[in-house]
Amino acid sequence: MNVLNHGALLAALLAASIGGALRAQDNKSGVPVPKLPEFDKSDAAVYGRQLADYADLYDTGWRDSYAVSNMTLFDSNGDSVQRRTVQLILEKPDGDKSIVRFLTPAEIKGVAALTHEHPDAVDDNWLYLPATKRVRRISGANKTASFQGTEFTYEDLSNRIVAKYDWRFLAEAEIDAAAGKVPVYSLEAKPRYTDTGYSRLVIHVHREYWRQERIEFYDKADRLLKVLDNSVWKHRHGRFWRPMKIAMKNEQAKKRTVIESSNQLLNLALYKNKRTGKPRPNLTDAQFTTDALTGRR
Amino acid sequence: MKPIGRVQRALRGALVAAATAAIATAQDPLDGLEGLGDLEGLDEPATQAADSGVGLRVTGIRGFLESRGRFFTRDRRRGDGRSDAQWVQELEVEFDLAITREISGYFRPRFLIDALDDDLIRTDPLEAYATWDNGVMDFRAGQFVENWGIADTFNPIDVLNRRDLGEDPVDPQRLGELGVRWRWRLPGGDTIAEPIVSVYAIPVLQQAQFPNAENRFSLATGNDRLREDLAGRPGGIDRWFFAVRTQNVLNTPIANADVQLLAARGPDRFPLFNAAPNALGGVDLTPTYFGIWTVGGGFRAVPNVDALADYTLKTEVVYKVPYRIDGSPAALPDEYLQYAFGFDRLFPNVFTDKDQITFTAEWVGETGANDSTSLYRPFDDDLVLRGFWEANDFDRTSVELRAIFDGGGEEWIAEGILQRQLRMIHEDLQFELGLRWFEIDRSEPGFFALFPNNSNVWVAIRLDF
């Protein structure tokens, strides 16, 4: 679909070897890299939107995703708690579908959330609570609420659909990342929807790999609120970049949340079952229904 | 031994034995695969069980151990034998089992004992069933629980399962029903998505579990006796419960909704009581089961209108038609309509940058019946208000406040529950403090007027695993 950084952040998570190499591999995904368009650099708004569109197109075609992640929440005193989740995403041209299921702590083990995204309407959201054995539709309009006490809001976790923002090219720059200096396009994105906690985002997109290295979130008073850093990148199938580590720091509250993956796959059909030697099946719509959300049919 | 007892015990025994064996032989067929060694939580049969043959293994275990003390604060020491306190110890465990690619199992035993009441002991398999699933349809056999309810407090559509009224009649545990379920997942479209048709057949009438003599909700105190042993047991096809249920997701320009329709026929899970004088000078109360047709439906919807998109709307409506079984009872309850409708609204970031409050308002009740039994059903025209505050802090602190106001009288009930993790001891240890307050209108017949004022405060410690 038409999104930038498909990556629902959690989805983009993954497994991986710490210190994974940044070296691009051979493209084994079957999805060619899209041809660079002719950019119109005369207008910052047009150029910014073109860059956003291309970064979105660059990250299209991965079909499905599976990720197991550890979330560590730090407060301003350095105290921390951990949560572990598994997330499935199905890439769809008319809106992705995703499931997040909690594995720990024990109190919320089995709690699961299902989202069907709609580019032109309110997303469908359901929550499954094992204690009541009930799947409940919940409003998808409260995107400014914290996701399970983390520094991420539901808005942060949603795909950033390009058409829902006004874009502007700011600069070609270099930022200090975990792996060193990184050349980026700095883009400003102003939400066009009303239910947002931000006045604008500044998104730093890698100039060669078209991945989001850093995002700065500004509150409604245009003060820097949060900074998200993606690092420990993994190059899936030699085609799609996914960060193994995502850190969101609240610059005002001095709290942060770090998401690290212990396992992450893109396009499951490209992995073979070791025992049978056959390719694994891709995820399907049937695994993203309210019935499947319970994990027990 | 009753037939039902044999079936339950045999099923429980088989599942326990199978689970034990499985733990010893469990293997992850994906172990060692690059990037595939840990496919936790993926609901995809190939990742969870062998590709062929029977290779039963446990794929998930969770549960809790809880100790809960409850102290009744009003109408104490009435000299009628009722206990003014409870101290309940409860263990509940869930086992997810994979048997073959298409057959899975589930076992959820419960062990409960009140240290202050020798008669309150539960050793139940709340659920114990096997499910065959080929992706398009599934068949389940065993003892199972399903929650069909849509509203928060009162769910007239939720007619499948009995309740255990013995430990907390106001918030009772659901009890499994022994039967079969067959479901078809039909092809859906853009407007009507995920349609499912389910058929239920429950051949065994298991009785509700009533409060015993020492319970403050007991019907049998003093010289009055509850004679469950004399309860009429319908035979043959009359004891069967049948239901057809449809579910689907409805996507329209106005709203997106989860819709369900229901038709059911069978013994009502809550019997009438036949009162007859006994030799002690009191009355013997004998449960009398009768049949009931239930037809209705409900929905839970989120409007696609910006001004209403923050609200979740919900409705349940059923029409119930009682009928006699073997000519009993002599006085059949009237037909009646039950309903619950209202909304939820979430308010984020109220006191902190992480917290949220879910506010609920519902109108619940019934209409159409004028017989005496209708006076003892707990909801007439009542307003339910609920606020649920979640701090979303490290201790997962929450406060739930709920109040039910009788729209036609002076009666109201309020409840407050504080929950917080005791992380300084163990991250999965939870503390709970609750208060339930009754103001009862005794000027006219009613469910709560049958009992002493059961306002109470409770404290619980719970370890989840």
Explain how this protein is built:
The complex is a heterodimer of chains A (297) and B (465). By secondary structure, chain A is mainly beta. Helix content of chain A is 8%, strand content 42%. Chain A is globular, with a radius of gyration of 19 Å. Chain A has a single domain, classed as Lipoprotein localisation LolA/LolB/LppX (outer membrane lipoprotein receptor (LolB), chain A, Clam), CATH 2.50.20. The two termini of chain A are 30 Å apart. In chain A, the strands form two sheets. In chain A, strands 7-6-5-4-3-2-15-14-13-12-11-10-9 form a 13-stranded antiparallel β-sheet. In chain A, strands 1-8 form a two-stranded antiparallel sheet. With 465 residues, chain B is mainly β. Helices cover 6% and strands 50% of the residues of chain B. Chain B has helices at residues 3-25, 45-48, and strands at 57-72, 85-98, 103-114, 117-133, 137-144, 162-164, 173-175, 177-185, 192-202, 225-226, 241-251, 255-267, 272-277, 283-288, 291-303, 311-323, 336-348, 356-367, 381-390, 398-406, 412-421, 429-439, 456-464. In chain B, the strands form three sheets. Chain B has an 18-stranded antiparallel β-barrel. In chain B, strand 4 (117-133) and strand 5 (137-144) form a beta hairpin. Classes of the chains: A mainly beta (297), B mainly beta (465).
Strand fraction of chain B: over 45%
The radius of gyration over CA of chain A amounts to: 19 Å
Q: Please give the oligomerization state of what you see.
A: heterodimer
Q: Helix/strand/pairing class of chain B, anyone?
A: mainly beta
Total count of domains of chain A: 1
Shape of chain A: globular
**Number of structural units classed as domains of chain B:** 3
Biggest interface found: A-B, 63 and 66 residues
| Poorly predicted parts of chain A | 1-24
Distance between the termini of chain B: 34 Å
What is the fold-level CATH name, i.e. the topology of chain A? outer membrane lipoprotein receptor (LolB), chain A
Strand content of chain A: 35-45%
Sequence of secondary-structure elements of chain A: EHEEEEEEHEEEEEEEEH
Largest beta sheet: strand ordering of chain A: 7-6-5-4-3-2-15-14-13-12-11-10-9
